[in-house]
Structure formats: C-alpha cells, structure tokens
Automatic annotation (TrEMBL):
GO molecular function annotation: oxidoreductase activity
Taxonomic placement: Bacteria, Pseudomonadati, Pseudomonadota, Alphaproteobacteria, Hyphomicrobiales
Keywords: Oxidoreductase, Plasmid
Origin: domain of life: Bacteria
Family affiliation: Belongs to the short-chain dehydrogenases/reductases (SDR) family.
The name this protein goes by in its record: Oxidoreductase
Matches recorded under Pfam families: adh_short (PF00106)
Species of provenance: Rhizobium grahamii CCGE 502
Residues that span the membrane, as ranges: none
Length: 130
C-alpha cells in the first residue's frame, strides 16, 4: 500500500469516464476503474497504479466488490467519479425518465454511499467511527 491518493471511477472504459482515468493517472493517483467489460475494452496501459474491475455497479454486490478491491489494493478510497450510466441522455424520452423516477431506481447512489460508510476516506475516519 502507498501514501498516494486513490480515486474510484465508474463508467471508466470510454467516453466521459475515460478522461478522468487518464487525468488522475497523469497526476500520480492510484485509479480503480470499473465498467461492465473494462478489462476487455480498456484503452489504458496496465500500470501498478491502475486496477480494473469488470461489473455493473448498479448491482450492490458488484459495487461492494469494487470498493473492497480498491481498499485491498491501495488502502483507501479518497475520491469518487460516478460516471456509470445506462444510455446517453439523448436516448431517453420523457416517459422513460418519468418511469425511472417512479421506480426509485437510485440504488447505485445508495450502494456507493453504503460502501463509503464501511471504508470512509482517511480524513473522515474519526467522524465515521464515533
């Protein structure tokens, strides 16, 4: 484990999510990138500071596995970019957005928040423990 900061980036294999992976690696951070098939589709060179985890973070078990891999490999999660998504915004109709809101499908946010209570960032550990 190192004293470097670690960031977890969801939706990291392409598009907007891939940008922060490169930027944080260039700044010397450890990066944990996740998407459904990131290990097969990654545009990134493998380095000691990059951990790639396949899976859908909409599934609570995957989100927990990603958080555990980050902490096991790098010791903490200091920052998060949550870029995982289902489709591009332009593909959603008003009815589809209304249906998503009615289903209360914000599980990914709850899962990430829940994972952070188990693995609080270093500067928040004292608050979280008592």
């Amino acid at each position: 484990m190192s004293g470097q900061k670690t960031i977890l980036i969801t939706g990291a294999s392409q598009g907007i999510g891939a940008g922060p992976v490169k930027a944080f690696l260039d700044k010397g951070w450890n990066v944990v990138g996740t998407s459904r098939r990131i290990s097969n589709t990654t545009p990134f060179d493998r380095t000691a500071r990059l951990e790639l985890v396949d899976g859908d973070v909409g599934d609570p078990a995957t989100a927990e596995r990603v958080a555990h891999r980050a902490v096991d490999r790098f010791g903490s999660i200091d920052a998060l970019v949550n870029d995982a998504g289902i489709e591009g915004f332009i593909y959603f109709t008003k009815q589809a957005i209304r249906q998503m809101l009615l289903q209360n499908s914000g599980g990914s946010v709850v899962t990430i928040t829940s994972s952070l209570t188990d693995h609080p960032p270093r500067h928040r550990r004292r608050e979280a423990s008592g």
